[in-house]
TrEMBL record:
This is SagB family peptide dehydrogenase. The lineage of its organism: Bacteria, Bacillati, Actinomycetota, Actinomycetes, Streptosporangiales. Pfam families: Nitroreductase. InterPro entries: Bacteriocin_Proc_Enz, Nitroreductase, Nitroreductase-like, SagB-type_dehydrogenase. Residues 170-363 form the Nitroreductase domain. It comes from Microbispora maris. CDD domains: McbC_SagB-like_oxidoreductase.
Length: 373
């Protein structure tokens, strides 16, 4: 039979060991020294017995043949026109435009019919014990040694449209903006309503049983915060940054929204319009906006509770939920808005001061006043 190396697996170097990761069936195999020679031999379809041609030594030839047979039995080497080959062909065809790494992530985080699932009770029991020895990362960030700008409280008067169905039907992506500055009270109301914690009615904020703030937010001992948008496990990994291009009362530049006390922390970084457009993927219309709201994900918040890679998907969904809330709030306030993920991540990281190892740039909402009619 003819076999070749599977197209739906990857070689990884892990703790000094070469590992084959079969991401379709979620299996990993530690490879003995020299096995990579067999894998290279079967880069294309060849008869299984051809592996004996790798050497003139009969004993060594038997050794390589036994290894090749084991690899074929475990679909590291796949049989031409066999079920695994046909399955891989369909996947390669469907995912070709996005490349092998995209499909590798998707299928490595795809759950199977027999995937073990935990109950809420099991999660709670484990987390109650974990929080005593391994506290979660902070649910809120506050940056040291930066100037702070207190924001006005959210004024209900900023919402011109208050009926949910009406706002849903009005919502559009609009890439043209008026020449007037964004009112600070509207920006403040939008940020607090979208990204601020909801007040609690049943007591103070606690972390691992320690009282933190008598006027705190709804949370439990492992910082399960609640906001107006849903978040997987109530972890809320999304941090919000404001780039003020033309906002009343704010110096132009980048700010971090400190949700715990409803303030803006000035990062001291400013881009001219040309550089701002470059950071936003050369989308010229961004230069007419009053502000950009950047969404980033702090992966440690989710990893503390969820150690499996599928949860990376939740980071993206969280930003989707939050950015839709911002869409609706901007619409309710009579603003124009468009969300875009077409960013030059590295430029945005430099602007916001994000370490891409664990603080991921995901997307931005571009907001401005409506053009005069």
């Amino acid at each position: 039979m003819n076999v070749r190396l599977s197209a739906c697996g990857a070689l990884l170097w892990d703790a000094g060991q070469l590992v084959w990761d079969d991401y379709l069936d979620h299996r990993q195999f530690a490879l003995a020294d020299g096995v990579e020679r067999v894998l290279r031999w079967f880069a294309g379809f060849r008869p299984l017995d051809s592996v004996r041609e790798m050497t003139d030594d009969p004993g060594e030839a038997d050794h390589w043949h036994k290894i090749a047979a084991v690899l074929a039995d475990n679909d590291v080497l796949i049989t031409e026109n066999g079920p695994r080959h046909q399955r891989e062909q369909a996947i390669e065809q469907a995912w070709r435009p996005w490349g092998p790494l995209a499909r590798a992530y998707h299928f490595s985080s795809r759950s199977h019919a027999g995937t073990a699932m935990r109950t809420a009770e099991q999660d709670n029991e484990e987390l109650e014990a974990k929080v005593l020895t391994d506290p979660p990362p902070p649910a809120f960030w506050s940056l040291p040694a930066v100037s702070r700008h207190a924001l006005p409280d959210a004024d209900p008067a900023v919402w011109r449209h208050r009926d949910l169905i009406d706002v849903l039907h009005r919502r559009r992506s609009r890439r043209c903006f008026g020449g007037t500055a964004l009112p600070l009270d509207v920006v403040a109301a939008l940020l607090k309503t979208a990204a601020g914690p909801l007040p609690r009615a049943d007591g103070p904020l606690t972390q691992a049983g320690v009282t933190l703030d008598p006027g705190g937010v709804l949370t439990d001992s492992w910082q399960r915060v609640f906001k107006t948008s849903p978040s997987g496990g109530a972890r809320h990994p999304t941090e919000v940054y404001l780039y003020a291009r033309d906002v009343e009362g704010l110096a132009p530049g980048a700010y971090h929204y400190a949700a715990a006390d409803h303030s803006l922390e000035y990062l001291g970084r400013r881009l001219d319009d040309e550089r701002l457009v470059a950071a936003a993927g050369d989308q010229d219309w961004v230069a007419g906006a009053g502000a950009l709201i950047f969404y980033t994900s702090v992966i440690a918040r989710n990893q503390w509770k969820y150690t499996f890679p599928r949860v990376y998907r939740a980071l993206l969904m969280d930003v989707g939920h939050l950015s839709q809330t911002v869409y609706l709030l901007a619409t309710a306030a009579g603003l124009h808005i468009t969300f875009t993920a077409a960013l030059r991540d590295q430029l945005v990281e430099e602007l916001l001061g994000c370490d891409p190892a664990g603080h991921l740039v995901i997307g931005t909402s571009v907001i401005g006043t409506a053009p005069a009619r």
